[in-house]
Each structure stands twice: as structure tokens, then as C-alpha cells.
């Protein structure tokens, strides 16, 4: 299974994207500010992950106490999850899912998190490898 995250609006405090599953639009995303980590210093809890391709698994998050997608081997980052939230204050480098109907926010994120986690867990349990391409 291939997830694609296309970053479409890189703002000073946040980044808006579109998430696709196997080529089909799923939802909008919100991340922290994109920084070129070759030229800029990472700012803890305020920096989006680098563009790249990452393997994704679903497991229980110790922090959130529920099953969530986890991106593996992200350079300069640990514990990057895809989860619910509304603003860049909720991200800490993670990818928030929802609908971008208000500037700098995603809404209705809980339903998207639950559905995405269900889809990915089903794929993983059937032996399918899951990757995400972040652009």
C-alpha cells in the first residue's frame, strides 16, 4: 500500500498537504513548518519531517494509548505518528489528518484518524507492506 503526502502550502508556522492512499485522495493534512535541515536547524516540536519515503506500521502509541500509524526511520526524528489534532501546536513533527477548511487548521480529524488506522492495520495484518512518500 502506498500513501502519498503532497505538501501544497508551506507557511511560516505550518504546512498543509493532501494525503492519498494508492492514488486516491483520502484527506488533508497539517504539519509543522518545513525546514531544509541541511541549511536550517531543527526546532523541536516546530519542524516537519524531511521529504522522503518511509515504511509505516500500526502499533499502540505509548503517548496516546491507542493504535496509530508510525513512520519508521525518519532522519532526525523519533515517534512520528499520523493522528488527530487541529493546529500546528498539536503536531510535534507528526502528521495530522482532517479537513483543511480553515487557515492553519484541520477539522473533523478524529474520524479520519480512526478510518486511516483501520485501513492501514487491515493492510498490515494481511501482510502488505505500507510506505508513505512525503513530498
In angstroms, what is the radius of gyration? Answer: 14 Å
Query: What level of helicity do the residues show?
Result: 10-25%
Low-confidence stretches: none
Provide a count of the helices.
Answer: 1
End-to-end distance: 17 Å
Strand content: 35-45%
The structural class is: mainly beta
Could you give a short account of the major beta sheet? 9 strands, mixed
Mean pLDDT: 96
In words, what does this structure look like?
The structure is a single chain. This protein has 135 residues and is mainly beta. The chain is 13% helix and 43% strand. The chain contains 1 helix and 9 strands. Strands 1, 2, 3, 4, 5, 6, 7, 8 and 9 form a 9-stranded mixed β-sheet that branches. The radius of gyration is 14 Å and the shape is globular. The two termini are 17 Å apart. The relative contact order is 0.24. The mean pLDDT is 96.
Write the layout of secondary structure elements.
Layout: E1 2-10, E2 14-21, E3 24-32, E4 52-60, E5 67-71, E6 82-83, E7 95-102, E8 105-107, H1 109-125, E9 130-134
Parallel strand pairs: 1-9, 6-7
Antiparallel strand pairs: 1-2, 2-3, 3-7, 4-5, 4-9, 7-8
What key attributes describe this structure?
135 residues, mainly beta, nine-stranded mixed β-sheet, 1 helix, 43% strand
What is the compact description of this entry?
With 135 residues, this protein is mainly β. The protein is built from 1 helix and 9 strands.
Amino acid at each position: 500500500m502506498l500513501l502519498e503526502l503532497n505538501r501544497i502550502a508551506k507557511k511560516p508556522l505550518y504546512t498543509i498537504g493532501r494525503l492519498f492512499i494508492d492514488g486516491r485522495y483520502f484527506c488533508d493534512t497539517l504539519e509543522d513548518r518545513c525546514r531544509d535541515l541541511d541549511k536550517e536547524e531543527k526546532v523541536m516540536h516546530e519542524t516537519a519531517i524531511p521529504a522522503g519515503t518511509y515504511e509505516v506500521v500500526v502499533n499502540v502509541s505509548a503517548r496516546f494509548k491507542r493504535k496509530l500509524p508510525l513512520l519508521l526511520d525518519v532522519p532526525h526524528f523519533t515517534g512520528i505518528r499520523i493522528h488527530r489534532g487541529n493546529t500546528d501546536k498539536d503536531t510535534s513533527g507528526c502528521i495530522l489528518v482532517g479537513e483543511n477548511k480553515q487557515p492553519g487548521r484541520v477539522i473533523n480529524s478524529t474520524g479520519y484518524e480512526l478510518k486511516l488506522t483501520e485501513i492501514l492495520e487491515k493492510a498490515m495484518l494481511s501482510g502488505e507492506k505500507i510506505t508513505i512518500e512525503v513530498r
